[in-house]
Amino acid sequence: MNRIVVGIDLGTTHSLVAYRREDGQVEVIPDREGRLLLPSVVALSKDGVRVGWSARERINDPETTVIYAAKRLMGRSFAETESERRSLTYPVVDHKGSPAVPDPSRNRFLTPPEIGALVLRDLKTRAEEFLSQEVSEAVITVPAYFNDAQRQATKDAGAIAGLKVLRIINEPTAAALAYGLGSGKDGLFAIFDLGGGTFDFSLLDIRKGIFEVRATSGDTHLGGEDFDRAIVSAWLEENPKLASLAERSEVRDLLRKEAERAKIALSLKPEVEVAIPALGFRTSLTRSRMNALVEPFVDRTLSCVRAALSDGGTAPADVDGVILVGGSTRFLRFKEAVAAFFGKPLFDSVDPDLVVAEGAAVQADILSGRRKDLLLLDVTPLSLGIETIGGVTSTLIPRNTTIPAQAKELFTTYVDGQTNVDIHVLQGEREMAKDNRSLARFTLSGVPPLPAGTPRIEVTFQIDANGILEVTAREQTTGTMSNVVIQPSYGLDKDDVRSLLKEAFSHAQEDFATRLLVDAKTEAQTVLNATERALEKVGSDILPDADREAIRNQMKSLRTAMEGTDGRKVRDETQALDRLTQPLAERLMNQSLSNALSGMALSKEGGSHA
Amino acid sequence: MSDTGTAEKNRSQAKLLHPDNREHSHSVCWNCEKNVGDEDVCPSCVRVQPFGPERDYYSILGLPVRLALDPRLLVAAYHEKSRTFHPDHHVEDSEKEQSITLGNASLVNLAFRTLRDPFLRAHYFIGHVKGKPARPNRKAVLSSTALMEIMDLKEERDSLLSSQGPAAAEQRLRTVIDPIERDIFHSFEEIDALIESADKEGDTLSKALDILSERLEKRSYLQNLLKEVKEAS
């Protein structure tokens, strides 16, 4: 069995899983009903936990907590999520500093990585059923602008779901990988990724299979959901009676859904009628009105684009093409604005909803060691440095540096006889340390007591290909060393993650084993029934007693196996029985018995696990 | 589980990156102990070799030590070395090889980042030719006349900023920066030619390098003035 690494797009509104088939084609894996998208929605109620479509159906059920857009909380502290929480209709509480959703029916709190894990586990199960094999490794995509903590939280979500996350890659880069496949086009490409909740922009240099990320930028609070909200706000302003009704969350949900529907309809026609009879609300929305409402968002995306171009030292004219990603790029106003800004062809042939997952599957394929023709040279999205005298940030690795990366810098003491040096590791673009994100603090002790400014302390930053940062401080005269591997904190500490991991791990294996056992037992029973019927019909003229005895014995071993819990053993015993009855079936081709046996063979096809 | 695994691995990798902690000499393969010279990959056992401490950014990318570099050549060299060393192409290799590729790929990236920017490249080049390690963010030392000029220009910029806005201030700064950058570029070929001539220890080269060095320092001051304008607007 081939090891398969899947690519997962864990989106704010929808998630998908894809893999690269033996024939080289990338395929998004559908669920049992043939749907490719999985709503990133989790519903908590007394009767259980639902994920995806069935969870989304519960949105107005007062007995159910419906969690959506949890990606916006991912990897952030409770305090950091204040503005997010105001726009969410489900309760979010402070659980050990992390935002968490109470699940009273199961007496627990769900943190964002755990919520993400529920979605990921659903995708994992989907992939396992589709591929008929265990899936335990994945590449997961995140917005390019995600910081270290948000990436780490996403990784943890994967681990909790029983997935080893081989790599976190940026969504725009993934999209480019999907488009770069086989096209043989070289050049400088811009990727404009506008999803439900986030905006991402990247510049990529593509040459002979090498994807070099030149610059990225983005806005973690900009997407299609903002447009829906802008429409709803406009309606409420025009209609004060509606505004008082909208204090109720289900009314707001209703309005938001209607706004979303109208927005989508406007990409096909210039005007739509809007009616919510239950609220006595009726209006119409024109495309030009809609465009006016989203214009501030258009401006915000373009200012990100300018920043990235300036970082990459390029002008719009240098760009050879623009790849559109994310459902919200279906919005005509954005297509127009992007086309006008660059004056270059737009690439939108791959379904913008699927392209990120497909690209993740390509990177998954590279990391499974099967492709040496492609290589992704990714960058670190935010600057990394340490705090120096006066609370100033000294940057060691500027943002958009290609990883893996290493930087060294010499520092010294500022007090005579100082023997300890505190190293405060920071992430961000701001001048002052307090304005940047604190990643870690550690102390280098054992510095020889010398006059201020004399010791030479070399600080080394090393970022590996996964973007994980290790910081080492070393006093050069004595060789005293101290280091830290940055495990970004965002509320879940390492032990929390570890215990969740342990839980998840045992569950994941359990889940897979259970499914295997159930399937194997079903198949075994079918084979047993068919064999039993066949044995009743044939005499010793066709089936020698010794053979009959052998078949009987094998049936007995199979039944014993079925009493146990080992699905593989059941499957092996079934195959053994199959082999024993095979010659019999051949001998009886023209007899009534062959009907029974071929019936058995047919019924086996469906449940086959091999 | 997997977390601790990575942590341990990273720790050993970081050690390897310090030149004085290198366990093997660069001319002998760490694996089969056959002679490898300056090859990236051992010709006998096909294992990647760690860059020795004597490797400069030019030699890491397999490029001649020159100030004027063809950008296409540079990118091609960078991509070739990335294919050889990037950890993503070594995921199935032993931990030892992975730590070597991490260190080498980091250096390849750093070398490319430095040599791609003509001003960083020039700064590095001067340090390399003079035999001193150059650190890009070292504080520049300028003559007092040059400093006075810059102070005057700063005042002029500030008054332009308040009277006519950032565009005018930027334009004024550009009239000083652009000629300096042109002079810097012009000196590249000239210095390359001097280096290739036999007269390596000559006064002409030393003087040319000093002039280049001063221009680079002046430019970096002026760039800061420009940066402040951009941040203000």
Keyphrases for this structure?
heterodimer, A: 610 residues, alpha+beta, Nucleotidyltransferase, domain 5, Actin, Chain A, domain 4, Substrate Binding Domain Of DNAk, Chain A, domain 1, 4 domains, six-stranded mixed sheet, 15 helices, 30 strands, globular, B: 233 residues, mainly alpha, Helix Hairpins, 2 domains, 8 helices, 0% strand, disordered N terminus
Give an overview of the whole structure.
The complex is a heterodimer of chains A (610) and B (233). Chain A has 15 helices and 30 strands. By secondary structure, chain A is an alpha+beta fold. Chain A folds into four domains: 5-222 and 294-377, Nucleotidyltransferase, domain 5, CATH 3.30.420; 224-293, Actin, Chain A, domain 4 (Alpha-Beta Complex), CATH 3.90.640; 382-492, Substrate Binding Domain Of DNAk, Chain A, domain 1; 497-607, Up-down Bundle (Substrate Binding Domain Of Dnak, Chain:A, Domain 2). In chain A, the strands form eight sheets. In chain A, strands 1, 2, 3, 4, 11 and 12 form a six-stranded mixed beta sheet that branches. A six-stranded mixed beta sheet of chain A has the order 19-18-13-14-15-20. The longest helix of chain A is centred in the C-terminal third of the chain and has 44 residues, at 494-537. Chain A is globular, with a radius of gyration of 29 Å. Mean pLDDT of chain A is 84; it is low at 592-610. Chain B is mainly alpha-helical. Chain B folds into two domains: 2-116, DnaJ domain (Helix Hairpins), CATH 1.10.287.110; 144-232. Helix content of chain B is 65%, strand content 0%. Chain B is built from eight helices and no strands. The longest helix of chain B is centred in the C-terminal third of the chain and has 31 residues, at 166-196. Residues 1-25 and 134-139 of chain B have low confidence and may be disordered. At the A-B interface, strand 20, strand 24, strand 25, strand 28 and strand 29 of A face helix 1, helix 3 and helix 4 of B.
Shape of chain A: globular
Structural class of chain A: alpha+beta
Average predicted local confidence, pLDDT of chain B? 81
- Annotation field: number of helices of chain B: 8
Number of spatially distinct domains of chain A: 4
Number of strands of chain B: 0
Distance between the termini of chain A: 10 Å
Could you tell me which chain pair has the largest interface and how many residues each side has? A-B, 41 and 31 residues
Categorize the overall geometry of chain B. Answer: elongated
**What is the string of helix and strand elements of chain B?**
HHHHHHHH
Number of helices of chain A: 15
Rg of chain B from C-alpha positions? 22 Å
The CATH class designation of the largest domain in chain A is Alpha Beta
Distance between the termini of chain B: 50 Å
Q: What is the count of distinct domains of chain B?
A: 2
